[in-house]
TrEMBL record:
One of its GO terms (molecular function) is transmembrane transporter activity. PROSITE patterns: ABC_TRANSPORTER_1, ABC_TRANSPORTER_2. It holds the Pfam family ABC_tran. Gene3D superfamilies: P-loop containing nucleotide triphosphate hydrolases. It comes from the Bacteria. This is Cell division ATP-binding protein FtsE. Residues 9-232 form the ABC transporter domain. GO terms for cellular component: plasma membrane.
């Protein structure tokens, strides 16, 4: 099988755990290269725990899982940074460093992930800022940007290493509806360019506006809109 045919995420009978507590059990799903899926479910149903398991912040409790070619059930801590370099991770609370400029925020990540050479770094910086529509904001401090612009910087940061997969946890959570729709359009653009996206959200308006595959955490299970039809309610 060629690399491009290998799914980005493959879970089989996987257990998602918080300590000794099982959050989701026997979940099986595949996310193909370049696919987009929403992850929904009530508060506390396990969306964040599932995303954390996919980026190896939580250990896989049982079953088998592969993300970007890395087997989760036998991932040593030394391999975790290599897995994370294949992923773009976006949280609801922006987690920008507020004591430095947009450019410095991005350069910090580039250097931490092994980039060197002033010109290479500068080029990559310009590329990602252009991509998220912030070409003129490199020298601004985060507090000089709106919430939506800050979220764009977070997305630019997640794109630095050309991830195979974007994992986003409530990326539109704190934004007003128009700004949320702008951010969603940006995700769609990124996805159209070939990056797979798994996006946890409570924003059903966005899902109705941009209908795509939906995975729902419910009663400890994961249900998949491509296999079972269900209503978009919490
Ligand atoms: N750090 C933690 N330690 C122990 N239990 C946790 C921790 N974080 C979450 N949990 C528990 O795990 C379960 C799943 O929580 P999780 O945060 O994955 O849900 P969620 O669907 O993402 O919720 P929300 O929509 O509110 O973000 C809940 O019962 C929660 O209380």
């Amino acid at each position: 099988m060629s690399d491009s045919a290998v799914p980005v995420v493959e879970l089989h009978d996987a257990y998602i755990m918080q300590d000794v507590n099982t959050v989701l059990q026997k979940i099986t799903f595949t996310l193909e290269k370049g696919e987009f899926a929403y992850l929904v479910g009530r508060t506390g149903s396990g969306k964040s725990s599932l995303l954390k398991t996919l980026y190896a912040d939580l250990p896989l409790g049982g079953g088998v899982g592969t993300v970007a070619g890395f087997p989760l059930q036998k991932l040593s801590s030394g391999k975790v940074p290599y897995l994370r370099r294949k992923l773009g991770i976006i949280f609801q609370d922006f987690q920008l460093l507020f004591d430095r400029t947009v450019a410095e925020n991005l350069i910090f990540v580039l250097k931490a992930t092994g980039w060197s050479g002033k010109a290479r770094i500068q080029n990559r910086l310009s590329e990602v800022l252009m991509r998220v529509g912030l070409a003129n904001s490199a020298s601004k401090m985060p507090h000089q940007l709106s919430g939506g612009e800050q979220q764009r910087v977070v997305i630019a940061r997640a794109l630095l290493n050309e991830p195979l997969l974007l994992l986003a946890d409530e990326p539109t959570g704190n934004l007003d509806p128009e700004v949320a729709a702008d951010i969603m359009r940006l995700f769609v653009e990124i996805n159209n360019a070939g990056t797979a996206v798994l996006m946890a959200t409570h924003n059903y308006q966005i899902i109705r506006q941009y209908p795509k595959r939906v995975l729902k955490c419910e009663n400890g299970q994961l249900i998949d809109s491509t296999q079972v039809s269900f209503k978009l309610t919490e």
